[in-house]
RNA sequence: GGCGGCGUAGCCAAGUGGUUAAGGCAGGGGUCUGCAAAACCCCCAUUCGCCGGUUCGAAUCCGGCCGCCGCCUCCA
């Protein structure tokens, strides 16, 4: 369903005309683009992504039920939900119907019995392309009914968690509750999770202000997992402010985490078999428990990340010791990173990307490392340092370790 | 005007009645290193927007005020 812009135009139709495409092509195009961004952010795809326009009969059915039960009334081919018949209206947002009227700055729709009543079905004039036949004539569904219908069709009623932005609490989620609970007489949703708003450099993000950030653009400057880490670093109920300073700090922090995990994984193939020290076992158990406690507390991802950093500090200390860690120890540590950092938070990749641009890149870097090693052995420090500096300028960082020289890319995952 | 969220160090950000206010970034000092990098150790908020109050005790509870954000509109 396109639904209307401030200008009264249909959102999808406007876009379709502009791009000279079928309305459904527009929907498909933006849906795919959205999934691309979510894939990059390591967000799992939903099992079902229902479309409102694919559920017109079900929506009509719900409107019929509400009419039959007396919660709705029809006027001129439109159907409205009568808020006065549902005393609990406002229970989610803490509003009272009487209070709502005071702030109304728009002249009430004369078709409505009460200004707070909302549309379940709207009559559509012939020029409105997205319209369907119904018992009340040609029209299209109201602005909240699709969510009630599609969520309960696939999840049942009640279902466990309904997410969404805080800005949708009223009227959208309030209306969903009214429709669904009035129709079926049982609770609609068990838990509501409302994330706070996103700002850019302290001001709200909006197209008209020209400060909107598109993920595809952001990914050119910061790796998608950096953005994910940044988002996870604050609680979902807190406002999220995008700034270069904050994103850069997140990038550094994630790199620190990755450095430790990379070191652990690099050592596994060369490590000797041996027992896992009690100290390590206990630390793994403790940090895992702390992590899960944080997540169980209303998805406190920020605190959970703190636990991961605490754990890494211990790991780094073990790694820096003289005695080598056994293969079992390293694998146990990596196992916790995979469980908490990968499976749960999705910020530590299964495998770190090499980001090779061409087949020649890796052998050439290795050649330069060899040459530099020879200069170092000859104590020709200026030449050795020049190789390291020039490579760094190219985005390759060299690190000398007791096991030899390692290299990695600066700002991994950022599309050049 | 009403409803809701937020306001914690230079920056980001946990913590919502009780020992020393997590963690990350930045900064300072040290260890390691040929020098770096990475890593480790130490330092870095007697104080939690402001003002009152409750309490033996408050960032945490109550009242008032200020600031940012959102909603109160047929965007969904």
Provide key terms for this protein.
416 residues, alpha+beta, Rossmann fold, Isoleucyl-tRNA Synthetase, Domain 1, four-stranded antiparallel β-sheet, three-stranded mixed β-sheet, 14 helices, 11 strands, 12% strand, RNA-binding
Describe the structure.
This protein is an alpha+beta fold. The chain has three domains: 46-195, Rossmann fold, CATH 3.40.50; 203-344, Isoleucyl-tRNA Synthetase, Domain 1; 361-409, no CATH class. It has helices spanning 11-19, 23-40, 56-68, 97-103, 145-155, 169-184, 215-221, 224-232, 244-267, 278-296, 301-319, 327-344, 361-377, 381-393; strands at residues 72-75, 78-81, 118-123, 139-141, 159-165, 189-195, 198-200, 203-204, 240-242, 396-401, 404-409. Strands 1-2-3-4 form a four-stranded antiparallel sheet, with helices on one face. The chain has a three-stranded mixed sheet with strand order 8-7-9. α8 crosses α9, α9 (244-267) crosses α11 and α13 (361-377) runs antiparallel to α14. The protein is elongated and about 90 Å long. The chain starts with 10 loop residues before the first helix and ends in a 7-residue tail after the last strand. It binds one RNA strand of 76 nucleotides through α4, β3, α6, β8 and α9.
